[in-house]
Structures are given as C-alpha cells and as structure tokens.
Amino acid sequence: MTYRYIKVTREGRLTIVTIDRPEAHNALNAAAHDELAAAFDAFAADPEQWVAIITGAGEKAFCAGHDLKQQASGGGMSTPATGFAGLTARFDMAKPVIAAVNGVAMGGGFEIALACDLIVAARSASFALPEPRVGLAALAGGLQRLPRVVGLKNAMGMMLTGRRVGAEEGQRLGFVNEVVDGDMLAAARRWATEILACSPMAVRATKEAVLRGLDTPAERFLREQWEYPATAAMMTSQDAVEGPAAFAEKRTPAWTGR
Fold first, then answer.
1. What is the mean pLDDT of residues 13-39?
2. Is residue 220 part of a domain?
3. Which GO terms describe its molecular function (predicted)?
4. Residues 17 and 118 in one domain
5. Residues 224 and 131 occupy one common structural domain
6. Which of 24, 31, 73, 153 has the greatest number of C-beta atoms within 10 Å?
7. How many other C-beta atoms lie within 10 A of the C-beta of residue 65?
8. 97: which strand partners?
9. Number of domains present in the structure of the chain
10. 111, 168, 169, 208: which one is catalytic?
11. Domain residues for 204?
C-alpha cells in the first residue's frame, strides 16, 4: 500500500510507524486514520513482525490529536473500527506496541500513547486531554485508560482541566516508562530489542493475560487464562520447547514465533 500521511519501515522483526504530517503537528485527518489502520492491520497479520513503534515526524509533535480544521470544515470525526489511529480500539492486538513521543501528545495523540504498552518520551514531550477546552471529550479510550494508570484523582485533575503534563511528571504519575535526553527513537528501539530477546509467543501471552486480567476476578482469571488464544498458542509452540532446551544447554534461544 502507498501511504501519503504516514511512513512504515521494518528493521528485522521491528515495525516503525511514523505519523508524517509535521506541518499539522501530526494531527490525523480521515485519510491518515485509514492509513494507520491499514499499517497496523499489516503488522498484526505479519508473522515475521513481532514489535512495533509508533512515533511522529519532526520534533514538535507526536500527534496533536484529531484534525479540528477538518472537522470545522464539515469533514466530521469518523475513525476506523479499530479506533483512533487504527489502534485505540484494537483490543485483540497481542503484539507489543511502543509509543516514542516527541513533542506534544494532545487529545487523541495522548490516547494513542495510552493504548500502547510502553511510552518512551523526549524530555520536551507534553501530554494532555484538552477536549473539554474545545467542547469535546476524550472518547478514544483516554477517559478509561488514564485513571487505570495514574489513579482517579490524578486523572480527574488532568481530564477536567485539560492541563498539560510534562514528560517528567508523566513518569512520576506512572504513564511514561522512560524520559530521554537525545535520541528518543533510539531509546524506543532499545526497549524493542529487549522485548525481541524474549519469546514472542510468551510476550503475547503475557500481554493478553495482563490486559484481560484487569477486568477479571482473580479466581476466574486463574481458571480461564489457559484458554486465552495467545496462552494456548504459547503452550503448544516450538518456542515453549526451545526456551527450556536453551536454558539447559546454556545457550541463547533461537525463537521462531511458532
């Protein structure tokens, strides 16, 4: 597929998706949403791609959210079935996704980052759900995900005022994993490399079980987790044999993702 508003590159097992509208602070119009949905469809379906990074072009913005100019001109606010940026409602994504946040992550941009599994942020990055300031609400998952990560009162303090939070405060609150001086994308690649050193089958089973467990009572979770798709796939995989064998033989495992 030819993309106009995003760039997709592959580095071995790693897919890097870059929102490429720096002149609009990487705000998403309808076509950009569709392109991102297609890119993450391709990533999810490709057995050779195990981890993804999403970032924004330029230094000023990760993503400024929905393109309000498009909305003001009558373009609407439609998003793909898989959510804002084709990611925020992709609840069956067992592969890990890292947000590499440069500059502002506003509204839907912050919701993209919250939908990812890890957030690496440049020290200059800032985050906000400012929708109430323009007569809207953060309806792409931010209202649910942020309180889970930072607690209700901290989340309300951000969501009801629309205030901006810097990268360091984001790390103190718990939604930023690492604050970076210098090459933020290199730091995200380092996290990806550490994930890629693990069995992709085990990584997916872990992510799926953790996210399902958030809403499941422990007694039921411990009984049902063996039936989760990624867990069942892990238990019958070649990787489940390779891992213990490599440990016993004191060598680096050769993961196949099968």
1. 96
2. yes
3. enoyl-CoA hydratase activity
4. yes
5. no
6. 24
7. 29
8. 52
9. 2
10. 111
11. 200-248
Closest CA to 176 of 114, 229, 238, 93: 114
pLDDT value of position 47: 96
Tell me: the pLDDT tens digits for 103-127?
Answer: 999 999 999 999 999 999 999 999 9
131 is catalytic: yes
| For range 9-37, the mean pLDDT | 96
Same domain, 33 and 124: yes
For the chain, the first-to-last Cα distance in angstroms comes to 27
- With H, G, I as helix, E, B as strand and everything else as coil, classify residue 258: coil
35, 48, 59, 131: the catalytic one is 131
Angle at 231 between CA 201 and CA 13, to 5 degrees: 15
pTM, two decimals, is 0.94
Known catalytic residue at 178: no
Residues 120 and 216 placed together within one structural domain of the fold: no
Tokens representing 159?
A: 């969501």
Question: Among residues 196, 220, 236, which one ends one of the domains?
Answer: 196
Answer yes or no: do 161 and 61 share one domain.
Answer: yes
| Burial of 169 per CB tally in 10 Å (0-12, 13-18, 19+) | middle
Buried b (16+ CB within 10 A) or exposed e, 132-150: eeeebebebbbeebbbeeb
Q: Is residue 122 packed enough to be buried (19+ CB in 10 Å), middle (13-18) or exposed (0-12)? A: buried
Answer yes or no: are the C-beta atoms of 159 and 143 closer than 8 Å.
yes
Read off the CATH number of the domain in which 141 is found.
3.90.226.10
